[in-house]
């Protein structure tokens, strides 16, 4: 897929879009809080090949090859705002039917988008998303910040984000570790989700517990399914890609989304 910079109301975002399959939905991949287009590796290509769907992968502002953020400071509703940016990006590309595949922050953004823009979203695959703040998440973020400050994590992330690394890490960790964010919660939005949902979660996720899955599944009004994977961490699509790929393809086929 060829990548390009797309101006979305002043936000210059890097995106890779393949729309060769006419009359097929587009699978939109939403990366995590330290992720990027590159860090999805070949998972999007494989899922697209198996389902014959179109694909859109993009770097949120401040990540990957997108332009830098204006500031590291974030409001409590920053993921709700990212759902609006995604909708604007879809509008700019004239994409009307999507299946959202989001990981971590991306999973949360996928849920919010499905609630706010139901006419576009046909289904959601949420991997390790969050609908409220819990102690496990805060500890995971604190541990990640410690690793950033004491190991070569910064150097490894520069490969994907360049000089933007320090700002994006600060943006992510400061909001999640702040007292004002502890009350953040999007459970009130879940009732507006009426499309099929697959929630993928690992038992050993260092950033969240199975409570995230149960709260989400019980809160939506559409058909839902949970897929719990033992013995892996926060990123199943990297740790056990074939398992996640097989389940995702099955979900898309069963719900006749191809």
TrEMBL record:
Spell out where the chain crosses the membrane.
none
Annotated AB hydrolase-1 domain ranges read 25-137
- Name the domain of life: Bacteria
Q: Which PANTHER family match?
A: ALPHA_BETA-HYDROLASES SUPERFAMILY PROTEIN, HYDROLASE
Protein name per UniProt: Pimeloyl-ACP methyl ester carboxylesterase
- Record organism: Chryseobacterium profundimaris
